[in-house]
Design a protein that fits this description.
- With about 375 residues, this protein is mainly β.
- The chain has a single domain, classed as 7 Propeller (Methylamine Dehydrogenase, Chain H), CATH 2.130.10.10.
- About 0% of the residues lie in helices and about 45% in strands.
- It contains no helices and 30 strands.
- The strands form seven sheets. Strands 8, 9, 10, 11 and 12 form a five-stranded antiparallel beta sheet that branches.
- The protein starts with about 35 loop residues before the first strand and ends with a strand.
- The N terminus is likely disordered.
Length: about 375
């Protein structure tokens, strides 16, 4: 493990950022509360997966709390070994933290205590091989397994945070070696979507009244290598494409979910202008989206219309060779954090009223290229 004695407070020195005029820093939204919270990253260690916890002050400052074993094993590796988003996920009320253990094929549940401290309370088999992504809606938790043909499998979350497998919930992806990379629930919890980065498909599964996923509906992706996806509160499905535009660069697409769970295109492969856009998040009001371009060390900023129409507004950098992987917004929508595995840091940004990002000083986390994957924030 890294010697955390070197960790310093996450200072609020503003870094220089070049943005289009429309994204120059604006006064922060006054209605957004500035509550404190926490930031978590996963080591994904091959012998022992651990979660590193940081207290997040109301001004965005991070301070190291401690490291907590999940009880399972990660995959090890260098940069982005899981090839996924949401391998680490908080419950909607922030009482529990769920972590995939790809090396041991299970999911750990950790209770979130005072000032963000963690304790393991449960572990459950993932229902498949090499779990990489999680999605939660109410008392439903689904895990995406990318091993073999790939599958999704569901659990009921009990009041104490423990996981109860849902009979009949396991469904295979569209074919062998699909490269499942991300899953998410529609806001109403009636549809589960999964990105297949190797087959250029986006799967949708209807969710029954008992929580079990129904038969897969395979949808063609607008562009190549659909990697990460997320629903807006309005129900639009946003997808990052690592090689989505005709020239092989990255792109973002959006879709509407039809009553039969098929997808219809809203915005088709709008280029980000950068390489390897693999992670995407949406603001809590659904008006903005942020995508991490790992190959270019840039975070793209896009506006999102009520129907899901995407417009690229600009970008901010995370540092040469930083390779931003997972990105996540704080629950009050005030800060965005990026796990930059290429330099072994956590980069923070203040979210401005117009969706723009103002860079804050980054914080050393784990050794560069040490296989860390997974980020959760509240």
């Amino acid at each position: 493990m890294t010697n955390h004695a070197k960790f310093l407070p996450f200072a609020l020195t503003v870094a220089a950022v070049i943005l289009p005029a429309a994204l120059q820093a604006q006064p922060a939204q006054s209605h957004i509360a500035s509550a404190a919270g926490a930031v978590y990253i996963a080591t994904n260690g091959v012998n022992q997966n651990q979660l590193i916890a940081y207290h997040r002050a109301a001004d965005g400052t991070l301070n190291y709390i401690g490291s907590y074993p999940t009880g399972g094993r990660g995959s090890g590796g260098t940069i982005d070994p899981l090839q996924s988003q949401h391998s680490l996920l908080l419950s909607e009320d922030h009482r529990f933290l769920y972590a995939v253990n790809s090396g041991s094929g299970d999911v750990s549940v950790l209770s979130v205590g005072s000032e963000g401290r963690l304790s393991v309370i449960d572990r459950a088999p993932s229902g498949g091989g090499f779990p990489v992504s999680l999605a939660i809606n109410g008392d439903l938790l689904y895990v995406l397994n990318s091993g073999g043909a790939g599958s999704v499998s569901g659990f009921h979350v009990l009041s104490n945070g423990h996981l109860q497998p849902i009979p009949g919930s396991t469904q295979l992806l569209s074919g062998a070696s699909a490269g499942g990379a991300s899953i998410d629930f529609s806001p109403d919890g009636k549809v589960l979507a999964a990105a297949e980065r190797l087959t250029n498909r986006i799967d949708t599964f209807p969710i029954g009244s008992n929580g079990a996923a129904g038969t897969l509906v395979a949808n063609a992706s607008s562009g190549k290598t659909p990697f990460s996806l997320t629903f807006t509160p309005q129900g639009a499905l946003l997808v990052s494409e690592a090689a989505g535009n005709p020239n092989g660069g990255s792109a973002l697409s959006s879709y509407a979910v039809q009553p039969n769970t098929t997808l219809s295109s809203v915005t088709s492969s709008v280029p980000t202008g950068f390489a390897a856009a693999c992670w995407i998040v949406a603001s809590s009001d659904g008006h903005y989206a942020y995508a991490a371009n790992a190959g270019s060390s840039q975070i793209s900023i896009a506006s999102v219309g009520d129907t899901g129409v995407l417009t690229i507004l600009g970008s901010v950098g995370t540092g040469t060779g930083s390779a931003p992987l997972d990105i996540e917004l704080s629950s009050n929508n005030r800060y965005l954090y990026a796990l930059t595995a290429g330099t072994g840091r956590i980069n923070g940004f203040r979210v401005e009223a117009n969706g723009g990002l103002t860079a804050l000083s980054s914080l050393p986390s784990l050794p560069a290229g040490s296989g860390q994957n997974g980020l959760a924030v509240y």
